[in-house]
Design goal:
alpha/beta, binds iron/sulfur cluster
Length: 373
Protein backbone atom coordinates (compact mmCIF):
# COMPACT_ATOMS: atom_id res chain seq x y z
CA UNK A 1 0.00 0.00 0.00
CA UNK A 2 1.40 3.39 -0.99
CA UNK A 3 1.06 6.01 1.71
CA UNK A 4 0.35 9.58 0.65
CA UNK A 5 0.32 11.83 3.67
CA UNK A 6 0.78 15.14 1.82
CA UNK A 7 -1.72 16.58 -0.63
CA UNK A 8 -0.54 16.53 -4.23
CA UNK A 9 -0.79 20.33 -4.34
CA UNK A 10 1.63 20.56 -1.44
CA UNK A 11 4.00 18.09 -3.14
CA UNK A 12 3.76 20.07 -6.35
CA UNK A 13 4.61 23.28 -4.53
CA UNK A 14 7.85 21.58 -3.45
CA UNK A 15 9.01 20.93 -7.03
CA UNK A 16 12.47 22.29 -7.73
CA UNK A 17 12.16 25.36 -9.92
CA UNK A 18 15.44 27.24 -9.49
CA UNK A 19 19.01 26.63 -10.55
CA UNK A 20 20.20 27.54 -7.04
CA UNK A 21 18.20 24.64 -5.58
CA UNK A 22 19.63 22.28 -8.20
CA UNK A 23 23.13 23.45 -7.23
CA UNK A 24 22.41 23.01 -3.52
CA UNK A 25 21.05 19.52 -4.11
CA UNK A 26 24.15 18.57 -6.11
CA UNK A 27 22.52 18.19 -9.53
CA UNK A 28 24.22 21.17 -11.18
CA UNK A 29 27.82 22.33 -10.85
CA UNK A 30 28.11 25.78 -9.29
CA UNK A 31 30.26 27.07 -12.16
CA UNK A 32 27.39 26.40 -14.59
CA UNK A 33 24.74 28.12 -12.50
CA UNK A 34 24.75 31.57 -14.14
CA UNK A 35 24.47 30.18 -17.65
CA UNK A 36 21.66 27.85 -16.66
CA UNK A 37 19.82 30.70 -14.98
CA UNK A 38 19.80 32.59 -18.27
CA UNK A 39 18.40 29.50 -20.02
CA UNK A 40 15.81 29.14 -17.26
CA UNK A 41 14.61 32.71 -17.84
CA UNK A 42 13.68 31.73 -21.39
CA UNK A 43 12.68 28.09 -20.85
CA UNK A 44 11.45 27.56 -17.29
CA UNK A 45 12.69 24.78 -15.04
CA UNK A 46 10.53 22.55 -12.87
CA UNK A 47 11.32 19.06 -11.64
CA UNK A 48 9.26 17.20 -9.06
CA UNK A 49 11.18 15.82 -6.08
CA UNK A 50 9.93 12.38 -7.07
CA UNK A 51 11.42 12.58 -10.57
CA UNK A 52 14.63 14.14 -9.28
CA UNK A 53 15.11 11.06 -7.10
CA UNK A 54 15.10 8.84 -10.19
CA UNK A 55 18.34 10.45 -11.42
CA UNK A 56 21.63 8.58 -11.14
CA UNK A 57 23.52 11.24 -9.21
CA UNK A 58 26.79 12.56 -10.63
CA UNK A 59 26.04 11.09 -14.04
CA UNK A 60 25.35 14.04 -16.34
CA UNK A 61 24.59 11.71 -19.23
CA UNK A 62 21.91 9.88 -17.26
CA UNK A 63 18.77 9.70 -19.45
CA UNK A 64 16.49 10.79 -16.62
CA UNK A 65 18.78 13.75 -15.93
CA UNK A 66 18.74 14.75 -19.59
CA UNK A 67 14.96 14.82 -19.73
CA UNK A 68 14.55 17.14 -16.76
CA UNK A 69 17.63 19.31 -16.31
CA UNK A 70 18.64 21.82 -18.97
CA UNK A 71 21.99 21.41 -20.65
CA UNK A 72 24.26 24.40 -21.21
CA UNK A 73 23.57 24.17 -24.96
CA UNK A 74 19.80 24.32 -24.61
CA UNK A 75 19.30 27.96 -25.42
CA UNK A 76 21.56 28.00 -28.43
CA UNK A 77 20.55 24.91 -30.39
CA UNK A 78 18.99 25.40 -33.82
CA UNK A 79 15.55 24.25 -34.86
CA UNK A 80 12.10 25.03 -36.18
CA UNK A 81 9.41 26.87 -34.29
CA UNK A 82 6.01 25.31 -34.98
CA UNK A 83 6.64 21.91 -36.61
CA UNK A 84 3.06 20.68 -36.59
CA UNK A 85 1.25 23.89 -37.48
CA UNK A 86 -0.39 24.30 -34.09
CA UNK A 87 -0.87 28.02 -34.59
CA UNK A 88 -2.72 27.67 -37.87
CA UNK A 89 -5.01 24.98 -36.41
CA UNK A 90 -6.12 27.19 -33.54
CA UNK A 91 -9.76 28.11 -34.04
CA UNK A 92 -10.13 29.90 -30.74
CA UNK A 93 -7.88 30.48 -27.77
CA UNK A 94 -6.81 27.03 -26.51
CA UNK A 95 -8.91 25.11 -29.06
CA UNK A 96 -7.28 23.40 -32.03
CA UNK A 97 -9.33 21.70 -34.72
CA UNK A 98 -6.93 20.10 -37.19
CA UNK A 99 -8.84 16.98 -38.24
CA UNK A 100 -12.61 17.06 -38.80
CA UNK A 101 -13.44 14.57 -36.09
CA UNK A 102 -10.85 15.53 -33.44
CA UNK A 103 -10.50 18.59 -31.24
CA UNK A 104 -7.44 19.32 -29.12
CA UNK A 105 -7.88 21.45 -26.02
CA UNK A 106 -4.93 23.18 -24.39
CA UNK A 107 -6.55 23.06 -20.99
CA UNK A 108 -3.71 24.49 -18.92
CA UNK A 109 -0.17 25.76 -19.42
CA UNK A 110 1.05 24.09 -16.22
CA UNK A 111 3.27 20.99 -16.10
CA UNK A 112 4.74 19.50 -12.93
CA UNK A 113 7.94 19.01 -14.88
CA UNK A 114 9.15 20.96 -17.88
CA UNK A 115 10.64 18.28 -20.13
CA UNK A 116 13.71 19.71 -21.82
CA UNK A 117 12.76 18.39 -25.25
CA UNK A 118 9.18 19.64 -25.15
CA UNK A 119 7.79 20.76 -28.51
CA UNK A 120 5.50 23.21 -26.74
CA UNK A 121 8.63 24.92 -25.52
CA UNK A 122 7.46 28.25 -26.80
CA UNK A 123 4.30 27.95 -24.69
CA UNK A 124 5.08 26.21 -21.45
CA UNK A 125 5.11 28.63 -18.59
CA UNK A 126 5.48 31.56 -20.93
CA UNK A 127 2.44 32.61 -22.88
CA UNK A 128 -1.21 32.15 -22.16
CA UNK A 129 -2.00 32.74 -25.82
CA UNK A 130 -2.88 29.17 -26.90
CA UNK A 131 -4.15 27.98 -23.54
CA UNK A 132 -7.77 27.30 -22.85
CA UNK A 133 -9.13 29.65 -20.21
CA UNK A 134 -12.74 28.74 -20.19
CA UNK A 135 -13.68 25.09 -20.02
CA UNK A 136 -17.29 25.95 -20.79
CA UNK A 137 -16.28 27.65 -24.02
CA UNK A 138 -14.46 24.50 -25.17
CA UNK A 139 -17.41 22.28 -24.30
CA UNK A 140 -19.73 24.64 -26.19
CA UNK A 141 -17.45 24.51 -29.24
CA UNK A 142 -17.65 20.71 -29.31
CA UNK A 143 -21.42 20.79 -28.75
CA UNK A 144 -21.75 23.01 -31.80
CA UNK A 145 -19.58 20.77 -34.03
CA UNK A 146 -21.38 17.47 -34.64
CA UNK A 147 -18.53 16.24 -36.85
CA UNK A 148 -16.30 16.03 -33.74
CA UNK A 149 -16.42 12.51 -32.33
CA UNK A 150 -13.41 12.68 -30.00
CA UNK A 151 -11.52 15.22 -27.94
CA UNK A 152 -7.98 15.28 -26.59
CA UNK A 153 -7.65 17.34 -23.43
CA UNK A 154 -4.01 18.27 -23.22
CA UNK A 155 -1.92 21.18 -21.99
CA UNK A 156 0.59 21.61 -20.44
CA UNK A 157 -0.49 18.57 -18.49
CA UNK A 158 -4.22 17.89 -18.41
CA UNK A 159 -4.12 16.11 -15.04
CA UNK A 160 -2.72 19.15 -13.31
CA UNK A 161 -6.11 20.76 -13.62
CA UNK A 162 -8.01 20.79 -10.36
CA UNK A 163 -10.66 18.16 -9.73
CA UNK A 164 -13.25 20.91 -10.18
CA UNK A 165 -12.03 21.66 -13.71
CA UNK A 166 -11.69 17.96 -14.61
CA UNK A 167 -15.17 17.33 -13.27
CA UNK A 168 -16.50 20.22 -15.40
CA UNK A 169 -14.93 18.70 -18.50
CA UNK A 170 -16.21 15.21 -17.73
CA UNK A 171 -19.74 16.24 -16.89
CA UNK A 172 -20.05 18.59 -19.87
CA UNK A 173 -18.42 16.35 -22.45
CA UNK A 174 -20.11 13.15 -21.34
CA UNK A 175 -23.50 14.71 -22.20
CA UNK A 176 -22.53 15.33 -25.83
CA UNK A 177 -24.08 12.55 -27.89
CA UNK A 178 -21.88 12.87 -30.99
CA UNK A 179 -18.72 12.61 -28.86
CA UNK A 180 -17.60 8.98 -28.79
CA UNK A 181 -14.59 9.22 -26.50
CA UNK A 182 -12.43 11.57 -24.46
CA UNK A 183 -8.65 11.41 -24.12
CA UNK A 184 -6.53 13.08 -21.45
CA UNK A 185 -2.92 13.80 -22.50
CA UNK A 186 -0.61 13.73 -19.52
CA UNK A 187 2.85 12.92 -18.24
CA UNK A 188 1.61 12.93 -14.65
CA UNK A 189 1.83 9.14 -14.08
CA UNK A 190 5.50 9.35 -15.13
CA UNK A 191 6.75 12.50 -13.45
CA UNK A 192 4.26 13.06 -10.64
CA UNK A 193 2.25 9.90 -9.81
CA UNK A 194 1.41 11.35 -6.39
CA UNK A 195 -1.27 13.47 -8.07
CA UNK A 196 -3.13 10.23 -8.93
CA UNK A 197 -2.12 7.96 -6.06
CA UNK A 198 -2.94 10.51 -3.38
CA UNK A 199 -6.36 11.71 -4.50
CA UNK A 200 -9.32 9.35 -4.13
CA UNK A 201 -11.79 12.04 -5.25
CA UNK A 202 -9.95 12.26 -8.57
CA UNK A 203 -10.18 8.49 -9.10
CA UNK A 204 -13.87 8.51 -8.16
CA UNK A 205 -14.50 11.13 -10.86
CA UNK A 206 -13.03 8.86 -13.52
CA UNK A 207 -14.86 5.83 -12.11
CA UNK A 208 -18.12 7.73 -12.38
CA UNK A 209 -17.72 9.18 -15.88
CA UNK A 210 -16.01 6.21 -17.52
CA UNK A 211 -19.35 4.42 -17.08
CA UNK A 212 -21.03 7.12 -19.18
CA UNK A 213 -18.41 7.90 -21.83
CA UNK A 214 -15.26 6.08 -22.93
CA UNK A 215 -12.19 7.81 -21.51
CA UNK A 216 -8.55 7.09 -22.33
CA UNK A 217 -5.43 8.26 -20.57
CA UNK A 218 -2.59 8.97 -23.00
CA UNK A 219 0.71 9.15 -21.22
CA UNK A 220 4.39 9.29 -22.11
CA UNK A 221 6.93 6.87 -20.69
CA UNK A 222 10.23 7.31 -22.51
CA UNK A 223 12.58 5.10 -20.52
CA UNK A 224 12.15 1.81 -18.59
CA UNK A 225 13.48 3.47 -15.40
CA UNK A 226 10.39 5.69 -15.38
CA UNK A 227 8.22 2.61 -14.79
CA UNK A 228 8.60 2.69 -11.01
CA UNK A 229 6.18 1.06 -8.59
CA UNK A 230 4.56 4.46 -7.95
CA UNK A 231 4.12 5.11 -11.68
CA UNK A 232 2.66 1.65 -12.28
CA UNK A 233 0.36 2.08 -9.26
CA UNK A 234 -0.95 5.32 -10.83
CA UNK A 235 -1.69 3.69 -14.19
CA UNK A 236 -3.25 0.69 -12.39
CA UNK A 237 -5.58 3.05 -10.53
CA UNK A 238 -6.69 4.64 -13.79
CA UNK A 239 -7.21 1.25 -15.46
CA UNK A 240 -9.18 -0.02 -12.51
CA UNK A 241 -11.31 3.13 -12.71
CA UNK A 242 -12.27 2.04 -16.22
CA UNK A 243 -9.77 4.21 -18.10
CA UNK A 244 -7.44 2.34 -20.50
CA UNK A 245 -3.90 3.73 -20.57
CA UNK A 246 -2.08 4.29 -23.87
CA UNK A 247 1.54 5.31 -24.17
CA UNK A 248 3.29 7.64 -26.59
CA UNK A 249 7.07 7.49 -26.42
CA UNK A 250 9.28 10.18 -27.94
CA UNK A 251 12.49 8.91 -29.52
CA UNK A 252 15.22 10.99 -27.87
CA UNK A 253 18.94 11.15 -28.48
CA UNK A 254 20.90 10.05 -25.42
CA UNK A 255 17.74 8.84 -23.70
CA UNK A 256 16.21 5.95 -25.61
CA UNK A 257 17.84 5.94 -29.07
CA UNK A 258 18.75 2.30 -28.57
CA UNK A 259 16.73 -0.76 -29.54
CA UNK A 260 17.49 -2.65 -26.30
CA UNK A 261 16.19 0.24 -24.19
CA UNK A 262 13.09 0.69 -26.34
CA UNK A 263 12.36 -3.04 -26.45
CA UNK A 264 12.61 -3.23 -22.65
CA UNK A 265 10.33 -0.21 -22.34
CA UNK A 266 7.65 -1.53 -24.69
CA UNK A 267 7.73 -5.00 -23.14
CA UNK A 268 7.35 -3.57 -19.65
CA UNK A 269 4.57 -1.25 -20.75
CA UNK A 270 2.68 -4.17 -22.28
CA UNK A 271 3.20 -6.35 -19.21
CA UNK A 272 1.81 -3.58 -17.01
CA UNK A 273 -1.35 -3.22 -19.10
CA UNK A 274 -0.24 0.02 -20.78
CA UNK A 275 -0.72 -0.12 -24.55
CA UNK A 276 2.22 1.02 -26.69
CA UNK A 277 0.41 3.46 -28.99
CA UNK A 278 2.95 5.67 -30.76
CA UNK A 279 6.69 6.10 -31.01
CA UNK A 280 7.20 9.70 -32.10
CA UNK A 281 10.01 11.21 -34.07
CA UNK A 282 11.31 14.05 -31.85
CA UNK A 283 10.29 17.43 -33.24
CA UNK A 284 13.38 19.43 -34.11
CA UNK A 285 12.04 22.47 -32.26
CA UNK A 286 14.01 25.61 -31.73
CA UNK A 287 16.22 25.32 -28.70
CA UNK A 288 16.56 21.52 -28.64
CA UNK A 289 17.03 20.13 -32.17
CA UNK A 290 20.69 19.24 -31.83
CA UNK A 291 20.23 17.98 -28.30
CA UNK A 292 17.41 15.44 -28.65
CA UNK A 293 16.38 14.91 -32.26
CA UNK A 294 17.61 11.79 -34.08
CA UNK A 295 17.97 11.79 -37.90
CA UNK A 296 15.13 9.96 -39.62
CA UNK A 297 17.37 7.26 -41.11
CA UNK A 298 18.77 6.41 -37.68
CA UNK A 299 15.44 6.48 -35.90
CA UNK A 300 13.94 4.27 -38.60
CA UNK A 301 16.66 1.68 -38.16
CA UNK A 302 16.32 1.80 -34.33
CA UNK A 303 12.57 1.23 -34.69
CA UNK A 304 13.08 -1.77 -36.99
CA UNK A 305 15.58 -3.32 -34.59
CA UNK A 306 13.24 -2.67 -31.66
CA UNK A 307 10.26 -4.26 -33.38
CA UNK A 308 12.33 -7.34 -34.22
CA UNK A 309 12.73 -7.90 -30.46
CA UNK A 310 9.06 -7.58 -29.55
CA UNK A 311 5.94 -9.72 -29.45
CA UNK A 312 2.86 -8.61 -31.36
CA UNK A 313 1.26 -7.00 -28.30
CA UNK A 314 4.34 -4.95 -27.45
CA UNK A 315 4.85 -3.73 -31.02
CA UNK A 316 1.37 -2.41 -31.70
CA UNK A 317 2.73 1.15 -31.73
CA UNK A 318 3.14 3.17 -34.90
CA UNK A 319 6.36 5.07 -35.55
CA UNK A 320 5.11 8.49 -36.61
CA UNK A 321 5.65 12.22 -36.77
CA UNK A 322 3.06 14.91 -36.01
CA UNK A 323 3.57 17.03 -39.07
CA UNK A 324 1.87 20.17 -40.30
CA UNK A 325 0.18 17.95 -42.94
CA UNK A 326 -1.09 15.48 -40.34
CA UNK A 327 0.11 12.41 -38.54
CA UNK A 328 2.61 10.69 -40.80
CA UNK A 329 3.62 7.10 -40.23
CA UNK A 330 7.25 6.30 -41.00
CA UNK A 331 7.04 2.81 -42.44
CA UNK A 332 10.64 1.98 -43.31
CA UNK A 333 13.54 2.19 -45.70
CA UNK A 334 13.50 0.66 -49.14
CA UNK A 335 16.44 -0.54 -51.24
CA UNK A 336 16.93 2.72 -53.11
CA UNK A 337 17.64 4.31 -49.73
CA UNK A 338 14.38 6.24 -49.73
CA UNK A 339 12.08 6.23 -46.74
CA UNK A 340 8.49 5.20 -47.17
CA UNK A 341 5.77 7.16 -45.37
CA UNK A 342 2.02 6.88 -45.01
CA UNK A 343 -0.34 9.67 -44.15
CA UNK A 344 -2.12 8.23 -41.15
CA UNK A 345 -4.17 11.33 -40.31
CA UNK A 346 -4.43 14.26 -42.67
CA UNK A 347 -5.62 17.80 -42.47
CA UNK A 348 -7.20 17.37 -45.85
CA UNK A 349 -9.29 14.17 -45.96
CA UNK A 350 -8.23 13.18 -49.48
CA UNK A 351 -4.66 12.70 -48.26
CA UNK A 352 -5.47 10.00 -45.69
CA UNK A 353 -3.68 6.72 -46.50
CA UNK A 354 -1.52 8.52 -49.05
CA UNK A 355 1.70 6.49 -49.43
CA UNK A 356 4.84 8.31 -50.54
CA UNK A 357 8.63 7.99 -50.75
CA UNK A 358 11.17 10.62 -49.83
CA UNK A 359 14.91 10.83 -50.41
CA UNK A 360 16.47 11.58 -47.05
CA UNK A 361 20.07 11.86 -45.94
CA UNK A 362 21.81 11.53 -42.60
CA UNK A 363 20.95 15.14 -41.79
CA UNK A 364 17.19 14.85 -42.37
CA UNK A 365 15.29 15.17 -39.12
CA UNK A 366 11.86 16.18 -40.37
CA UNK A 367 9.90 16.50 -43.60
CA UNK A 368 9.42 19.87 -45.24
CA UNK A 369 5.91 21.35 -45.30
CA UNK A 370 5.36 20.03 -48.85
CA UNK A 371 6.60 16.55 -47.79
CA UNK A 372 9.50 16.52 -50.20
CA UNK A 373 12.23 15.93 -47.66
S1 LIG B 1 4.62 17.29 -19.53
FE1 LIG B 1 4.18 17.35 -21.76
S2 LIG B 1 3.65 19.50 -22.22
FE2 LIG B 1 4.68 19.46 -20.22
S3 LIG B 1 6.81 19.86 -20.64
FE3 LIG B 1 6.59 17.61 -20.59
S4 LIG B 1 6.19 17.02 -22.73
FE4 LIG B 1 5.85 19.27 -22.58
Amino acid sequence: MIENKKSWQKELSEAVTTVDELVDLGYVKRENAEKLKRIGEKYPISVTRYYLNLIEKNDYSDPIYKMCIASLEEGTAQGLKDTSGELCNTVSEGIQHKYDNTVLLLSTNVCSMYCRYCFRKRLVGQSEEEILKFTDKAIKYIEEHPEVDNVLISGGDALLNTNKVISRYLSGLSKIKHLKFIRFGTRTPVVFPQRINGDSEFIELFEKYSKIKTIYLVTQFNHPRELTKEAVAATDKMRHAGVPVLNQTVLLKGVNDNSDILATLFNELASNGISPYYLFQCRPVKGVKDLFAVPLLTSCSITDKTKAKLSGVAKRFKFAMSHIKGKIEIIGKIESGKLIFKQHQAKSKGDINNLFFVDVDKNTYWLSDDLTG
